[in-house]
Structures are given as C-alpha cells and as structure tokens.
C-alpha cells in the first residue's frame, strides 16, 4: 500500500513536499518504535544467567540429612518469584561446614553461608538473617521481604512448698527483716523499762537521803503503789508485749492467706 501510494503521488506536482513530510515522519517515529520494542522485551542483568545460591533450610536444601523440616518455604517462594521475573535459573549449594549464616573467626574468615560469599563460591544467599556491621564488608543485604517477631519464653519457677507459696507473698529476706524488727522492739522495750526502773530507784534514794520529798508525795506514792518493778513484773510486761506482737503477726498472716485464696479462686 505504501509503494502504490508513493508511485501514485510521483506524478503530482507536490512530489517534493511529500518526500519532506515522509522523511520528517520517519525521523520522529523511528525512536518511538525502537523504545516500544525495548519495553516489550526487557533485558536484565540476570537474564538467562545460571546462579549458584546458598541456603541452609529445606525445601531449598533437598538433602534430608541436612534439613528435614520445611523452614525455608518463604525463601523458596520469594526466590522462585525473582527467578521468573528476572529470567534466571539457579542451583542450591549448601555450606559444608555449618548450616547457618556463619560466625566470624579470629583470622577474619567467616563460616556458613557468609563464608561462601566471602570465598566467592556462590553468587547469592537466601536466608532469614539481619544486617550487621561486620558482614557489611563482605556482602550487601537486599530490601527486607519478611519481618519475623521473636520472643523469649521461660517457664514459671517451681515452688518448693505449695502451701507456703499460697500463704506468703514475701520472700525470705522480707520475713527475716520482720523477725529482726520484732526482736529489736522487744529489746528496746526491755531497755526502756530497765531505765525507768533505775530512774525510779534513784529518785527514791535521792528523796530519802536529802529529805526533799514531802509527806503528801510519799502518801500518794504509797497509795498508788509507785515502786520499782521487780523481775516478775518485768517478765510479765515482756510476755504481754510479745503476745500482742504475736497476735498482730497472726492476724497479718490470716489476712494474707485469705487474699491469696481469693486470687486463686478468681483465676479458676
């Protein structure tokens, strides 16, 4: 059709104008047609290349002696998508020393898949790992594909006595502090009573020797039986004090056990 159209226009007066228009059209449409062909047939740097890829987990690693559980199913899916999109083929080459990303040794060499990249044994490594400053000198990390959240799980500590754990919310140092406080209170009370007894005896001796006490004061003292405490009175007062503190401690333990029982029933 184009040849027939050119021959028909050749007999006309505007032959020169036609060729000018045809030349200009070819100049502007030629690069566009070339670009269209470039877009339809993309060329990548990995197109039709065969790569050696390192991995440590199945199903990429098909050796059942090395990997049994299919931990690497996500890596295989991503790798197959990249291979189909970029147009390359691959073979999996697992590391010979350790089935992991590897560790940095004292001589500066790496083990595992990182060591394979360092020794140029493979072209790429597909694994679950993170970037680090030590590995940055050897390899380049791609954009992260999968984010995995990890947590540390620990079991509850075993209780030596279930009865004690249900009735006590305090540790051993707390109970030791309570016992020391109780003993200190008893000792301080005994010292105070002894000091008061000594002061009373000293006051009586001073009053009798210097005759400074009036008759009315002596009468009141005898009427109210203000006299120094003996050993029996001191012992009785200490027993009463200890009994009061023991009752207080018992009430505290009862309230604590009731609170623990309520919490246990609430959990059930």
UniProtKB/TrEMBL annotation:
InterPro entries registered for this protein in UniProt: Glu/Gly-bd, Insect_Ionotropic_Sensory_Rcpt
Sequence intervals crossing the membrane: 170-193, 238-258
Single GO MF annotation: ligand-gated monoatomic ion channel activity
Assigned keywords, A-Z: Cell membrane, Glycoprotein, Ion channel, Ion transport, Ligand-gated ion channel, Membrane, Receptor, Transmembrane, Transmembrane helix, Transport
Membrane topology: Multi-pass membrane protein
Positions of the Ionotropic glutamate receptor L-glutamate and glycine-binding domain: 78-156
Subcellular localization, as worded in the UniProt entry: Cell membrane
Domain of life: Eukaryota
One Gene Ontology CC term in the entry: plasma membrane
Pfam families: Lig_chan-Glu_bd (PF10613)
UniProt cross-references to SUPFAM superfamilies, sorted A to Z: Periplasmic binding protein-like II
Name of this protein: Ionotropic glutamate receptor L-glutamate and glycine-binding domain-containing protein
Lineage, top ranks: Eukaryota, Metazoa, Ecdysozoa, Arthropoda, Crustacea
């Amino acid at each position: 059709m184009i040849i027939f159209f050119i021959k028909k226009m050749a007999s006309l007066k505007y032959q020169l104008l036609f060729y000018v228009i045809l030349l200009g059209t070819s100049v502007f449409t030629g690069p566009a047609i070339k670009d269209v062909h470039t877009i339809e047939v993309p060329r990548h740097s990995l197109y039709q290349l065969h790569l050696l890829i390192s991995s440590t987990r199945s199903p990429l690693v098909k050796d059942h002696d090395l990997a049994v559980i299919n931990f690497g199913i996500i890596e295989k899916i991503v790798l197959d998508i990249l291979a189909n999109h970029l147009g390359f083929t691959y073979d999996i080459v697992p590391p010979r020393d350790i089935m992991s990303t590897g560790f940095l040794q004292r001589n500066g060499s790496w083990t595992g898949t990182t060591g394979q990249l360092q020794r140029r044994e493979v072209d790429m490594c597909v694994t679950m790992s993170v970037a680090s400053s030590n590995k940055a000198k050897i390899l380049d990390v791609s954009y992260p594909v999968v984010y995995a959240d990890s947590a540390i799980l620990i079991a509850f500590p075993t209780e030596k006595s279930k009865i004690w754990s249900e009735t006590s919310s305090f540790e051993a140092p707390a109970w030791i502090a309570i016992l020391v406080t109780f003993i200190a209170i008893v000792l301080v009370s005994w010292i105070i009573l002894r000091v008061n007894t000594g002061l009373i005896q000293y006051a009586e001796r001073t009053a009798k020797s210097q005759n400074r006490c009036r008759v009315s004061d002596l009468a009141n003292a005898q009427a109210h039986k203000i006299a120094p405490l003996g050993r029996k009175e001191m012992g009785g007062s200490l027993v009463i004090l200890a009994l009061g503190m023991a009752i207080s401690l018992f009430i505290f333990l009862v309230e604590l056990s009731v609170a623990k029982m309520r919490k246990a029933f609430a959990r059930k």
